[in-house]
Amino acid sequence: MSDTVIFAVVLGGLFVLRIIGATVIFYYILPQGDRCPNCDAATARIQAGWIGRLIPHLRNRWCMRCGWEGFLREGALTPEPQPSEMSKTSG
Predict the structure, then answer these.
(1) Tell me: the pLDDT tens digits for 1-55?
(2) Residue 1, SS3?
(3) In 29, 68, 82, 89, which residue has its Cα 20 to 30 A from 19's Cα atom?
(4) What does each C-alpha distance from 85 to 1, 6, 41, 44, 77 come to in angstroms?
(5) Among residues 82, 73, 88, which one has the least CA distance to residue 43?
(6) pLDDT digits over 46-68, tens only?
(7) Could you tell me if 55 and 47 are in contact, meaning their C-beta atoms sit under 8 angstroms apart?
(8) 59 Cβ contact list (under 8 Å, min separation 6)
């Protein structure tokens, strides 16, 4: 085997491993749940494009309070307010 081929295979392998390692690290840096990382408000789920089909454990979210849009990992969801709680705050 030629030295050039060995060099290309090793260099290409290191490049691929670097991309895989960075992807795994960035995945675990993303927060879990449905809370906005900027203002800690509940976010709304929006339709994901191709990345949502590629990595189904990511959720494309949008914050109605501050306008943040991005990805969050699956996690605990904020409970919906009960009708009795909503009537207490509005009345």
Answers:
(1) 799 999 999 999 999 999 999 989 988 888 888 888 888 888 888 887 787 778 7
(2) coil
(3) 68
(4) 73, 67, 18, 20, 18
(5) 73
(6) 887 787 778 778 888 899 889 88
(7) no
(8) 34, 45, 48, 52, 71, 72, 73, 74
